[in-house]
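Bit of a strange request maybe. I'm writing a small parser for structure token strings and I need a real example to test against, not something I typed by hand. Could someone generate the tokens for this chain?
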Amino acid sequence: MSSRRLPSWAWVTGLLSAALVVVVGLAVRVEPLPEGGTGAAGATAKPSATAGTEKKKPAVAHPVPEESGQGRRVVYSLELRRVWLVDGRDKALRTFEVWPGSVHPAEGPYKVFSRLETGTGTDGVKVANVVYFARSSQVTIAFSNAVDGARPKVDLGVQTGAVRQGVADGAALWKFAPEGTPVHVVT
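Reply from user aminoacidic:
Good idea to test on real output. This should exercise your parser:
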């Protein structure tokens, strides 16, 4: 009886295919860890009766800065380029990223002194939810959002006091901050 042997290329192809299936299978099962890394936590986890129904606690990635005043207020961090809407119990109701113009207010307390529902920014962009709170170097500084939601373009030749934000954030700040609302600017 003659025995037939498989050629070596067939063995190599078969082993490579099996290895590829294993690697792809493991890669699909890799899940991100809370710290932002990766791991194979899902590969050995046992399903539970409550899987997918647990409520996750929101992470406090951006706590309200220290020394930012007290009570109901808007807090604006120059360094972090971030705004917090803070309630009367010093709890952040909302926080969001902003894109400041070329002129910045000095650190310290301010108050909203005027508001404009819609207008045109110094850069010619149509804006909404304009909340004025400071003056610096003959430039008025205000929170606003571009109507189309676009981030501002940097023009180093133009002095702008706009602190732009996203459309939803602009609407939230508009609702939160009528005239007289304290605004505290921190580093």
